[in-house]
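Researcher: Here's the sequence for the chain we discussed earlier.
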Amino acid sequence: MRKNTMYLLAIAILGLGLVWLMDATLSPYVKTLACFAGIFIVLAVSLNLTNGFAGLFSLGHPAFMAIGGYTSALLTFNLDLKPYFVPGLPDWLMTLQLPFLPALIIGGVAAAVTALIVGTPVLRLRGHYLAVATMGFLIIVQVVINNLEDYTRGPLGLNGLDELTNLWWVYFWVIVTFYVCWKVKYSSYGRIMQSMRENELAASCLGINIFGMRISALVIGAFFAGVAGGLWGHLVTALTPGSFSLGLAFSIVVMVVVGGSGSISGSVIGAIIFTCITEFLKPIEENHGLYGIGAIIMALVLILILVFRPQGIFGTREPRFLSPDR
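Model: Thanks. This is the structure I predict for it:
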C-alpha cells in the first residue's frame, strides 16, 4: 500500500507540472475546457463511490451539485452586488463573504447533510425504485430553487459570480477526490462496501450494517458533488436551475458506466472521453442545426458499451501500479 501511495504522489507531482504548463501556454478556451473535464472527473469518481462501490443506483448527483453550488455562491458573492441581486437575504448572510476554499467546503458539507437527511428514508429502497426516488429528489430540488427567489433568484438564476475557479483549484479537488476514493476502495471499509454490492444478503448475515454503509457512501459522494457544484458555478459565473437537470445526471452515469463501475481510473477516462466528445460535437450542432445530436451519440455509446462490454473499459480494476491487490 505504501508503494502504491508513492506512485500516486509521483503522479500528483507530474500533474502539477502539467497544470503549470497548461496554465502558461494554453488559450483561455482550452483551459476552460480542461476545467470542465476536471469537474466531470470529480463528479464521475464520486458517483462511482456511490454507484460502483456500494451498488446503489442514484440519479441525485446534480441535486447535490446544486445545493453545494448555490451555497458556495452565496458565501462568496460580492458584498457590493448582494443587495441588488439577492435583496431578500437575511442580514447575517448579506454581510458575509468567505474565501473560496471555506465556501467550497461548506457547500460540500451542506450537500452531505442533505444526503444524510434524504438518504435515511430513500435508501431503504432498492434497484430501480431507488433510481426513481433520487430522480424525484432532483426534481424537488429544482422546484425549490425555482421558488426560493430570495436566495436563488428563481428561474432567472444567480449570476454575477466571481470567476474563482481555475486549473489549480480543479486539479486540487481532482487529486483529493481520487485519493479519498482510492483509500476507501482499498480499505477494510471499502471492501465491506464492495461485498455488500456483490451480495447484500451474505454481507448482512456476516453482521455488516447494510443501511449504514449505504448512507455513508451516499454522503461521501454528495460532499464531492457539492464541491463540484461550487467549482462549476465559479467557472461559468452563473447558476440556474436548468443547469442541474436529469440530462446531467444521465451524462455522469454514462461516464461511470463507460469507464467501469467500481474503477476510479475508469471514471477519470470516462469523464475525459465525455468532455472531448461533447465539445467536438458542439460545432456540428450549431453549424448544421443538429441540436441534440450529442445526447443521441452518448446514448448510443452507452448502449454499445452495455451490449458489448457491460463491465466498461476498466471493469472494477485499476492500473497495476495503483492496485495493492496485484
